[in-house]
Amino acid sequence: MSKQSMREEAERLIRETMEKRNLVIKQGSTRIDAVCGKCGAPNRLAAERGAARVKFTCKNCGHRQETL
């Protein structure tokens, strides 16, 4: 199955489901896995829709920074 045919099949299934069950599709916040620039610890952040950069404080060392 090609990617285009898979997309068309997924869109068709979503349309049918929305007609049958009143399915509502919502877009939520984005989850970002960032790495601290000072200590290298992994941090998981929640960014609002459309936000390009998110300010956060490292959970391990407390260093304040922004995501890229």
Instruction: Give Rg in angstroms.
Output: 19 Å
Helix fraction?
Answer: 25-40%
What distance separates the N and C termini? 36 Å
Tally of distinct domains: 1
Q: Can you write the helix and strand succession as a string? A: HEEEE
Unreliable runs? none
How does the overall form come out from the CA principal axes? elongated
Number of strands: 4
Structural class call reads alpha+beta
How does the SSE layout of this entry go?
Elements: H1 3-21, E1 30-35, E2 42-47, E3 55-57, E4 64-66
Antiparallel strand pairs: 1-2, 3-4
How would you sum up this structure in a few lines?
The protein is 28% helix and 26% strand. The protein has 68 residues and is α+β, with helices and mostly antiparallel strands.
Overall description:
With 68 residues, this protein is of the alpha+beta class. It has one domain (3-66). Helix content is 28%, strand content 26%. The protein contains one helix and four strands. The protein has one helix spanning 3-21; strands spanning 30-35, 42-47, 55-57, 64-66. The longest helix has 19 residues, at 3-21. The radius of gyration is 19 Å and the shape is elongated. The model has no long low-confidence stretch (mean pLDDT 86).
